[in-house]
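Page 42, continued from yesterday. The earlier attempt failed because a stray header line got pasted into the input along with the sequence. Redoing it now with the clean sequence only.
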Amino acid sequence: MIQGPCWARFKRAGDRWFAFNGRDGTSTVDALQLVVDAPEFLGQGTSQSLPRAAMAPPQSHSNRVLVVVDDAGGVQLAVCPEPGGDSAVVVGDVVATGHRFWRKKYDVLAMPFQEFLGTSLTDWIAGRAGESWSAEKFRAGLERSMSEGKFPITIVVNELDSAVKETLDYLREVNQQVRVLGYKCLTSGGDELVWPRELSEERVVPASQAAMPQARSNPPQSGMRAASRPQKTRFENDSPRSD
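This time it went through. Structure tokens are written below.
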């Protein structure tokens, strides 16, 4: 049973039906790329505004922290640690990124997004949020969020290992608002379906047992989105279950 909606990446072409003999491919998913491509993934199951854009901030050391904005101008951070990674470097990036945009003006965040997306932040979100979305309200909401400086943190992982648990514990010790979001993936013939799932924080996988991620070339680069315009994606927060 798949909890809808889910996210799909298809490699087979052609306007035809084909068998999807799904096998577990959770360990092959690069969570960082998933959030960059589909930031709405972070907002499913919540009553808040949906995330619409994500970027890898400049001067990042871990390359595993993303800045994410929703269609109301809310700012959050997404942390996508690698199994067995250095928790100190990730935590350092989280703290530095939050400080970099705290009490800053709109352009301080909008310009890095424009460089990363290849188009203005407002144009990008307008293409995903629909006609009723207001750029003026978004700008005001973004500046308000940056002024408050309270950026919620979502840790996106398929398993909790000791390094991720250290990151989680430290961030909570310094009174950060943190949640953990897991995911599940089925793959067939190179095609993939991914949907969010809850992770038990009581079960920590030893580093030696943590699944290794799929080999990837480089972290997301500035301008990686310039080649294509965003498509409107209207997701409902209370989606029905589907087979």
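Notes: Residues 208-217, 222-243 have pLDDT under 50 and may be disordered.
Reminder to self: strip header lines before submitting.
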